[in-house]
Design brief:
globular; disordered C terminus; mainly alpha; 18 helices; Cytochrome p450-Terp, domain 2; 2 domains; Citrate Synthase, domain 1; binds acetyl coenzyme *A
Length: about 375
């Protein structure tokens, strides 16, 4: 049976768009595997450079080591800093999230160097510069001897992070580096499937990431926590929001029918980072929101997703909330570049069909127009 006949054709639910060796999401069991490892094991024992090496090896079909990635990313950050004035040329009046979009679009191949490292290296440099510009301060040059996570924090804050801060961001970057056929990865693969280059593909991925139903959610999570204010207002605030038909940011997922495994990985990273972050209050909000969602949508399991704890972790690292989505992109760029390469290497042009439900031209004055329902059936079969 055509899978589109049994599911909503509008959201492509359950439709495999590609074969991949990069990551697998099991929504029923709440499991995420990235390049052969469970996400919780990876976040415990692997750096961002390590997971990037696995992803780039999978995407290119050639073994790439962690040390090679570390050197390539350090050099990529330095190249991006040298080109910063050109990269930021179209961004002066733009907020951070939009400024990064314009700057990614200005990236291009740089003679013989791996495009992957140019892209992944550039993102924290641009993000750091945009954050600092919004605060009226100058960009800080990268330090190629630091890890990607530590250097990202250094370029945002203008000071070298301590080990706990660097470890917390590293755990975050690993945890969100890839996640199956999510919307931004799909967008990336669609563009790569046309044989457009990695720069075009990643620009598309970033654009898809910025929406609040995807990577734009963490800033609204903090706004929700701010709006709730204190523990006494949790119940009335959430009940009122749900009765108005609003969505609670940081909850629900297209694939997971149980808790997003990344949520607990990040919760662990937050508790290692610092006692005294807002976790007790956030924990109460989370607990009540899960209960309230169970009551409000008994037929649709809705649980905490990665964005809820992303917001708390990035806030604890003093990253301004306007930069949450760009910092997500710093991590996901590893996955996007690997998927783009894999799609170009092994995939086919991605070209789905649509179910036309609009009017049809009259074939002849004596013939009635073809009925839409008949047409839809014929397209789907
Ligand atoms: N709060 C309240 N209700 C919700 C939520 C939520 N967070 N999520 C889904 N629902 C409801 C929908 O309103 C819908 O109700 P209805 O059947 O009465 O109309 C029902 O649950 C089913 O929702 P769908 O739209 O089918 O769910 P979908 O799979 O499309 O949504 C999504 C997934 C977009 C993530 C959704 O859960 C959502 O909007 N969450 C809030 C935003 C968010 O946290 N985004 C980050 C996702 S993680 C990531 O991308 C990295």
């Amino acid at each position: 049976m055509n899978i589109l006949l049994s599911r909503s054709p509008t959201g492509l639910d359950g439709v495999p768009a590609a074969e991949t060796v990069l990551s697998h999401v099991d929504g029923e069991r709440g499991e995420l595997i990235i390049a052969g490892e469970r996400v919780d094991d990876l976040a415990r024992g692997c750096s961002f450079e390590g997971v990037t090496a696995r992803l780039w090896s999978g995407g290119s079909g050639q073994a790439i080591g962690e040390a090679e990635v570390r050197a390539a990313l350090g050099a990529g950050r330095q190249r991006a800093f040298a080109r910063l004035p050109q990269l930021l040329a179209a961004t002066p009046s733009l907020p951070i999230v939009d400024g990064l979009r314009a700057a990614i679009a200005a990236l291009h191949a740089e003679g013989g160097l791996a495009d992957e490292a140019t892209i992944v290296g550039a993102l924290p440099v641009i993000t750091g510069a945009l954050v600092r510009r919004s605060q009226g301060t100058s960009p800080v040059p990268p330090d190629a001897t630091l890890g990607h996570a530590a250097d990202t924090l250094a370029m945002i804050h203008g000071r070298r992070p301590d080990d706990r801060e660097a470890a917390a961001l590293d755990a975050y970057l690993v945890t969100v580096s890839d996640h199956g056929m999510n919307a931004s990865t799909f967008a990336t693969r669609v563009v790569a499937s046309t044989k457009a280059d990695l720069f075009a593909a990643v620009t598309a991925g970033y654009c898809a990431l910025t929406g609040p139903l995807h990577g734009g959610a963490p800033e609204p999570v903090l706004e929700m926590l701010d709006a709730i204010g204190d523990a006494s207002r949790i119940r009335p605030w959430i009940d009122a929001a749900l009765s108005r038909g609003e969505r609670l940011m940081g909850f629900g997922h297209r694939i997971y029918r149980v808790r997003d495994p990344r949520a607990d990985v990040l919760k662990g990273a937050i508790s290692r980072l610092a006692a005294g972050t807002d976790l007790p209050f956030a924990g109460e909000v989370e607990a009540y929101a899960r209960d309230a969602l169970r009551r409000a949508k008994p037929n649709r399991p809705l649980d905490t997703n990665v964005e809820f704890f992303t917001a708390i972790l990035l806030d604890a690292l003093k990253i301004p909330r306007q930069a949450f989505t760009p910092v997500f992109a710093v991590a996901r760029a590893a996955g996007w570049t690997a998927h783009a390469r894999e799609q170009q290497r092994t995939g086919r042009l991605l070209r789905p069909s649509s179910a036309y439900v609009g009017p049809m031209p009259k074939v002849g004055s004596d013939k009635p127009p073809v009925r839409t329902a008949q047409l839809r059936g014929s397209v789907l079969r």
